[in-house]
Design a protein that fits this description.
By secondary structure, this protein is an alpha+beta fold. Helices cover about 20% and strands about 40% of the residues. It has 2 domains: about 90 residues, PmbA/TldD superfamily (PmbA/TldD fold), CATH 3.30.2290.10; about 240 residues, no CATH class. The C terminus is likely disordered. It holds the Pfam family PmbA_TldD_1st. InterPro entries: Metalloprtase-TldD/E_C, Metalloprtase-TldD/E_cen_dom, Metalloprtase-TldD/E_N, Peptidase_U62_metallo, TldD, TldD/PmbA_N, TldD/PmbA_sf.
Length: about 475
C-alpha cells in the first residue's frame, strides 16, 4: 500500500497539465462465485482483481485512465496518460494535505467473514438449495442456484485533500426454478443478500430461499390467464421497490437530468407524485445490498430525500454533476470497478411507509390486481413510460384475493403512476439486484410498502378479460 506522500505525487502528475480536480481510485477485490445447474456444481470461480483508476476533470472534460501496475511508477504513468486528456487546461486550486472525512455510519458488524468460510461449506449450501427446490414439487424440471461473495478494499485520494480507506463485503444467494406440466412452463425466482456475513445464510436458510422460488413456479402453473384492461393495482410490500427504482429512480440521477434525458428535469419544487408519497435513497441503511459508508469518490454516504410528500426536492449527485450546479455531491458517485469512472447511481431506493394496514387496502378494492412479485421490464427515462412483467399476481374481487393469475404486465408512466397512489401501507419490503447503467453494474436494493394505484394498464390475455369495475 502506498504512503500518503506517494498518493500526493500521483495526483500532482495527474494535474501537471492543468485541470480542476483529480482523484485516484485503488481497488483490491476478492470474489467467490459458485453455480449449480442440472444437479451438479457447474463452476467455482474465485479470484482477486487489483487496479487503480485515475481521473482528471477540467470544465466539461473528463479524462480517465486505469492500470493493473500498482507500483509508484505504474500509477504515475497512468496519471500522465490522464493528464494528456486535459492538456492546456487552466490549473485549479489543489489541496494535498490529505485527511479522511468522517463517515456518518460505523463499519458494519460481520460475525462470520465469508472469505474465511471453507468453499466446501458454500458448496454444501448451494447443493442443499438445489435439493430443496427439486423436492418441493414433482413438476419442478430445472433449478439453478448461484452463491456469491465479494470482499473489496478501496483507497480513494483526491486533489481536494481527501484520503479514504474502506473495506466492503457483500453476499448474495439466488435461486431460479422452472416448473412444467401439460405443456405449460413457468419460472420462479428468489434472491437474498446484503452487506452481511456468512451468518446471514443461517437466518435466510438456503432451503427456504429455494422452496419459495419453487413455490412461485408451481403456483403459476395453475394460475389463470391475467385479465386485461385498466384497473386498480395493489403492489404488495413484499414485491420490493422495482417500480420506484425503474420508473422513478433513474430519472432522478443528476447526469440524466442535466442531459435533459429525464422526465423530472426542471421540476424541482413541483408536485410530481401523490402527497402520500415520499421517495428517498439511503446508502447508510445497515446490512442492505446497496449499503456503503463512502461512495466511490470518497464522499461520506448520506440519506437523500428525493420526493417529499409528493414534491420533488432533490436529485442524486456525484462530484462532477454537483460541481456543474455549484453544490456538493450527496454521496451517490458509484462505479462497478476501477475500470470505470464514477457516475450518479442509486443505492437503497424506497418509498417511505405510511400508516395503513395492508389488509385494509386490499379489502377496499372491488376489482383489481395484486402484485406480490415483480419481474423484468423496460423504462424510458426521457418520458417516464414503463412496461413491467408480473412474476406473481392475484386477482382481487370484492376485497378478497381470489386466485393467482399469470401473464400479467403493467404499463404506465412513472410520474403519473406516483400521482395515482391512493393508499400507502405501514409495511416495508426490500428486493436486491444489480443495476445496470452506461455498461456498469452496481449492487442495489429497493423497497416500498403496500400501495394502491388508482389505475394502471394491465396486459393479459383475451381469455382473461373481464369488465372492469371501479373502486
Amino acid at each position: 500500500m502506498l504512503k500518503r506522500a506517494d498518493w500526493v505525487a500521483v495526483l500532482q502528475k495527474a494535474l501537471a497539465r492543468g485541470g480542476d480536480f483529480a482523484d485516484i481510485f485503488f481497488e483490491e477485490k476478492e470474489t467467490t462465485i459458485i453455480t449449480c445447474e442440472d444437479n451438479r456444481i457447474e463452476r467455482i470461480n474465485t479470484g482477486i482483481d487489483c487496479g487503480a483508476g485515475i481521473r482528471v476533470i477540467s470544465g466539461e472534460t473528463t479524462a480517465y485512465a486505469y492500470t493493473n501496475d500498482l507500483s509508484q511508477s505504474g500509477l504515475e504513468q497512468a496519471a500522465q496518460v490522464a493528464a494528456k486528456g486535459v492538456a492546456g487546461a487552466q490549473p485549479g486550486t489543489y489541496v494535498f494535505d490529505l485527511t479522511t472525512p468522517s463517515a456518518r455510519v460505523p463499519a458494519p458488524v460481520i460475525k462470520e467473514l465469508p472469505e474465511q468460510i471453507p468453499v466446501e461449506n458454500k458448496v454444501e449450501a448451494v447443493l442443499a438449495a438445489n435439493t430443496a427446490a427439486r423436492q418441493a414439487d414433482e413438476r419442478i424440471r430445472q433449478v439453478s442456484v448461484t452463491y456469491g461473495d465479494v470482499k473489496q478494499k478501496v483507497v480513494i485520494a483526491s486533489s481536494e485533500g481527501q484520503l479514504v480507506e474502506d473495506e466492503r463485503r457483500r453476499l448474495r444467494f439466488v435461486v431460479n426454478a422452472i416448473a412444467a406440466a401439460d405443456g405449460v412452463i413457468q419460472t420462479g425466482y428468489n434472491a437474498v443478500g446484503g452487506v452481511v456475513g456468512w451468518e446471514f445464510l443461517q437466518e435466510e436458510q438456503p432451503a427456504a430461499v429455494a422452496q419459495d422460488a419453487a413455490r412461485r413456479a408451481v403456483l403459476m402453473l395453475g394460475a389463470k390467464p391475467a385479465p386485461a384492461g385498466r384497473m386498480p393495482v395493489v403492489m404488495a410490500g413484499e414485491a420490493g421497490g422495482t417500480m420506484v427504482h425503474e420508473a422513478c429512480g433513474h430519472g432522478l440521477e443528476a447526469d440524466l437530468v442535466q442531459k435533459q434525458l429525464s422526465v423530472y428535469q426542471g421540476k424541482l419544487g413541483q408536485e410530481v407524485a401523490s402527497p402520500l408519497v415520499t421517495v428517498a435513497d439511503d446508502a447508510t441503511l445497515a446490512g442492505k445490498y446497496g449499503f456503503y459508508r463512502y461512495d466511490d469518490e470518497g464522499t461520506p454516504a448520506q440519506p437523500v430525500t428525493l420526493i417529499e410528500n409528493g414534491v420533488l426536492v432533490d436529485y442524486l449527485y456525484d462530484r462532477h454533476t454537483a460541481g456543474k450546479e455549484g453544490r456538493k455531491s450527496n454521496g451517490h458517485g458509484r462505479r462497478e470497478s476501477y475500470h470505470y469512472k464514477p457516475i450518479p447511481r442509486m443505492a437503497n431506493t424506497y418509498i417511505a411507509p405510511g400508516k395503513e394496514d395492508p389488509e385494509d387496502i386490499i379489502r377496499d378494492v372491488k376489482y383489481g390486481l395484486l402484485v406480490k412479485k415483480m419481474g423484468g421490464g423496460q423504462v424510458n427515462t426521457t418520458n417516464g413510460d414503463f412496461v413491467f412483467d408480473v412474476a406473481e399476481g392475484y386477482l382481487i374481487e370484492d376485497g378478497e384475493i381470489r386466485y393467482p393469475v399469470r401473464g400479467a404486465t403493467l404499463t404506465g408512466n412513472g410520474p403519473r403512476a406516483l400521482q395515482q397512489v391512493q393508499r400507502v401501507g405501514k409495511d416495508w419490503g426490500f428486493a436486491i439486484g444489480t443495476c445496470g447503467k452506461d455498461g456498469q453494474g452496481v449492487p442495489v436494493s429497493d423497497a416500498q410498502p403496500t400501495i394502491l394505484l388508482e389505475e394502471l394498464v394491465v396486459g393479459g390475455t383475451a381469455t382473461g378479460e373481464k369488465k372492469i369495475r371501479r373502486l
